[in-house]
User: Fold these one by one.
Assistant:
Number 1:
Amino acid sequence: MGTDGKSPGDPATPDGVRAGIAIHGTGNCPLVDASTAHDGPITGINWTHAGDTHTEEFRVRHPDAVDTAEGIPDPESVVDLGDERVYRYDRPRDGGCACRVIEELDCPIADARAEDGVLLLTLHLPELERLRDVVSALDGSAERVEVRYLVEGTARDDGASDRTLVDRGRLTDRQREVLRTAYRMGYFERPRDANARAVADALDISPSTFAEHLATAQRKLLKETLAEN
């Protein structure tokens, strides 16, 4: 046992980060285009390359949006999972594709989804400098790249805290307004300075609608804060 409490050969704690980026104006991604007509995100996006062909797979909750989408070339329904359906389609490999640009930097993409015309990616990077490389490389492939959140690694042996920057971009404008108003009026205080009806009246919505917005917003934030990978 070493003087630092570690056994010889124990791996050092990595200094990496988990980053969420939003890519606006990719212009050449069929799924990003289709997401503007789809109610909810297009998820589970992954791909493979064979020769000059790029085969892409994705999941949707509402197949009608795929069937009517003009940008996806000949989407093929692969399997129906009940609440989602999996599709595939082929297209020529595109050197200007944002995901390929990132892969060429030797940065695997942990998660990819498209929502409301924006490509949302999750990356696990060994150091923060690599995130700067990714953003710079995308300069010619997108109108704008937005870093939505950064999550540092878990606590180190020196007692450093496990810090998380919450992705507020997951919330809609209305959800942010509901949270902000509830917080300002003291809804989260104990005892409360305002009850649900008072906050709902201030927002000019019904108490049930307030409760729905609040629950959805809290669920999104908790999912990001409590993520383990």
Number 2:
Amino acid sequence: MSIRFTAKAGRGMVALTVAAGLALGVAGCGSGGGGDDKSSPSASASKDSESKPSAQEGQAETPLAELKGTDGLLLQIASAQKDAGGFVTVSGSLKNDGAESVAIPAQTSGDETEVIKHGQSLGGATLVDPKGKKRYYVLRDTDGRPLTTTGLTTLEAGQTLPVFMQFPAPPASTAEVDLQVPTFSSGTIKISG
């Protein structure tokens, strides 16, 4: 079944979805892995005896993808979770793997005026479905703010920052997409959910 929204109504729905997702994401520090919220604040220190590994521990688990950027920046993708609302939330961390502080390149925000006016972000990120030959851009709320981590400036040596990006979901038949972020290498990620 296909539901069509006007751009303004769709953005409003996205804003509500993201507000709820951000509240959950902040509480769980980007958990987004298993669907039910059995994680505890000490999830990175100890692990429940589950049979499947969880992607929520970006540092302890193997990331879905690692995108190398300039000056030692490393974008590690921990999860790409599709939700019932038709969105894909990509979560992970941005790390300065270098020995000196690094300014996040302005190009990561993309080149759309509406996105840039809301500050530095990962608004230039896209998901590419190579089989369906489609590109999906970071969603925006009704005010044009990108639904991604914003306020990026500088990372000190060794510093890690949790990040997220939200996109429209590709068709259910698409299990893998390429994540592209300006100034970073691209990487293939598997969508779960």
